Amino acid sequence: MPAKIRLQRFGKKGKPFYHIVIADGRAPRDGRSIEKIGTYDPLTNPATIELDFDKALNWIKVGAQPTDTVRSILSYKGVLYKNHLLKGVAKGALTEEQAEVKFNEWLKDKESRINAKKSDLASTARDERKTRLEAEAKVNEARLEVLNKRKADELAAIEAKAAEEAAALAAAAAEKEAEKAAKEEAAAPKAETTEAAEEVKEAPAAEETKEKTAE
Questions:
Q1: What is the tally of structural domains in the chain?
Q2: 6 has which bridge partners?
Q3: Would you say residue 9 lies in a domain?
Q4: Which of 3, 113, 114, 196 is deepest in the core (most CB within 10 A)?
């Protein structure tokens, strides 16, 4: 049974990370591998692939069978296309120089498309960040508005209480002044009555003096 090129899982739960390995086709899935030829991290965008291109090509040339996922990885990195061109060279359909030119053109086009995708992702990330910041700014503005209204209401309540206390103090002072005035007004007639009584007492005494003088 030919060798297989497959993924060997590593990483933590929920955060997979894979080694691209060559394994005996008869070995169990988690069995011992023959050789490691790269790594694959599916959690990044785009996925991060590190691959020993020459080793992968050599294993494909000797008949190693990739799994579906690994086949996609090898196609993405150009290993399968390079193997296809080498088969064309072997059949005489094109020269090695022509095969190299075609492969370099493919690499250039591939790199251009990857860079465009990264640029689009970066632009999308910037737009999402801008939208998120604008939303956060609106939320903060609304919170500030609520806080300012609360402070204004608290200040108005304090001012109203202060005005109420001032009015109460003014009313108490006015009442005190009124009581004082009433007491002064009540004391004034008593003084006049006392003076009149004294005048009445003095009057008979004066008449007696006049009578004695007449005798």
A1: 1
A2: 21
A3: yes
A4: 3
